[in-house]
Amino acid sequence: ELGLYGFEATLIPVLSFEFISLESLFEKLSHPECYGGLVFTSPRALEAIKICLKDNSKNKAWSKSLKERWHAKPAYVVGKATASLVEEIGLTPQGEKSGNAEKLAEYICSREKPNSSALLFPCGALKREVLPTVLREKGVHLESLTVYQTTQHSDLQESLSSYFSQQGIPASVVFFSPSGVRFCLQHIQKLSGDLINQIKFAAIGPTTAEALGGAGIPVGCTPETPTPQDLAAGIQKALHSQNC
């Protein structure tokens, strides 16, 4: 998508994920009758389920009855990437146009009755409290289970140093998560030095933009929706405004 605007994009992996509590996750998935539905705000939560389903006995149980029983309940998702993974495990996503946790929380509250069965929320250790807080205030029960931990990618520093030494200061840097900002920004600041003001920083959504702002970095672009198309258009507009 960026290439269509004549940009050359370099992808640098920032995060590594360690999956945890998978037995607890499948134990909960084995009891759909205890829950009103599922909530996913990250593709990693679906990856955790897919790892569970690599086990033959678990896969049989899922295919035989669990998938059908969960299919009768809503599977709320925050965006398209997560939605496509929900479809891969045989469920139907709802709310994928939300784009962020705040809007997804509003969507869920508009469809769930207060004090009904809890929604199961497999999530990461660094999850924000926005969605749980909004649902709690509206009386919608959410049962969170941490199924992955986020750490800095082992090659991050080396990858960034290599990029800057070979290609110089980038026209734009895009962040896709607050964790990415936390692990990456200090290295970029060090490598850029006084030239950091030349870089247009982009954030995939409001949460990431908030993390950049909190670190004192002006955000040149936050796309209207977290899609490749809107991101590319937003970067084009931000760079065009300063004739890059």
Automatic annotation (TrEMBL):
Cellular component annotations (GO), alphabetically ordered: cytosol
Coiled-coil ranges (or none): none
GO molecular-function terms, A-Z: uroporphyrinogen-III synthase activity
Major enzyme class: lyase
Catalytic activity: hydroxymethylbilane = uroporphyrinogen III + H2O
CDD domains associated with the record: HemD
Keyword annotations: Heme biosynthesis, Lyase, Porphyrin biosynthesis
Pathway entry: Porphyrin-containing compound metabolism; protoporphyrin-IX biosynthesis; coproporphyrinogen-III from 5-aminolevulinate: step 3/4
Residues annotated as domain Tetrapyrrole biosynthesis uroporphyrinogen III synthase: 5-232
Keyword Lyase: yes
Similarity remark: Belongs to the uroporphyrinogen-III synthase family.
Name of the protein in question: Uroporphyrinogen-III synthase
Species annotation: Hemiprocne comata
Gene name per UniProt: Uros
